[in-house]
Structure formats: C-alpha cells, structure tokens
Amino acid sequence: MKSPVTHNNKMKLSELKLGNIVKLTWLDAFGRGSWNDIKDVEEGLKNHIVCEIVGYYIKKDKNFVVLSMGAQFDPHSVPFLHLEFIPKGAIVEVNKLKV
User: Fold this and answer.
1) Which residue of 10, 26, 80, 91 has the fewest CB atoms within a 10 Å radius of its CB?
2) Average pLDDT for residues 21-34, to the nearest whole number?
3) What residue spans define the domains of the chain?
4) What confidence score (pLDDT) does residue 62 get?
5) Which residues of 53-91 are buried (b: 16+ CB within 10 A; e: fewer)?
C-alpha cells in the first residue's frame, strides 16, 4: 500500500507558512564520553546522527524553527500541542508534505 504522505521538492524555511505540515532533517549533537584518539574523532565525523521530525510549522526566529506535534486552528482554543524547537543551524533539509 502506498503511503498517503507525499514529499514536495526541498523548500527554504522562508517559504513556509503557519500550519504547513513539514519534515525537518537535522544533524544532532553527540559526544564520546571517554578518552579518544584521532581515529575516534574521524569515526565520529563520518558517523554523525541524523534526525527527522514531522510536524506543523509554527514559526522561526534567528535561532530556532518551531514545530507543533498537533494543531487546531480554532480561535477559541489553545492551538498547539507539544512544541519542538529545532536549531536552525543544524537543519540540513526542509520538505513540505501533502496529506
């Protein structure tokens, strides 16, 4: 069965509007908690952590993009459920989704 979610072409953050459903891909921070040599450094640079999240686009500022995991756009209710603040500098791909 084909997924009902389809990807548009990659987008720029400036093209997003409130309520767009998006998938963000970003590189996450990570660490190695013991003594390491240069081989460990090189391995860490090659094996970075890639994260993806799907949510409703809320807004951005100079540091973060804010997504909501649930949204209701009724003026008489609290609109956003579970906010995620993703650092803009870590984002490597933005896709607007159609459902």
Assistant:
1) 10
2) 92
3) 6-98
4) 95
5) eebbbbebeeebbbbbeebeeeeeeeebeeeeebeeeeb
Measured distance CA(10)–CA(84) in Å, rounded = 21
Q: Which two tokens stand for residue 9?
A: 């072409």
Beta bridge partners of 74: none
- Could you read off the pLDDT of 38-57 as tens digits, one per residue? 999 999 888 889 999 999 99
Q: How many CB atoms lie within 10 A of CB 20?
A: 17
SS3 label, residue 85: strand
pLDDT bucket at 10, cuts 50 / 70 / 90: confident
* Angular region, 82: left φ>0, alpha ψ -120 to 50, beta rest: left
Q: What is the pLDDT of residue 2?
A: 43
69: left (phi over 0), alpha (psi -120 to 50) or beta: alpha
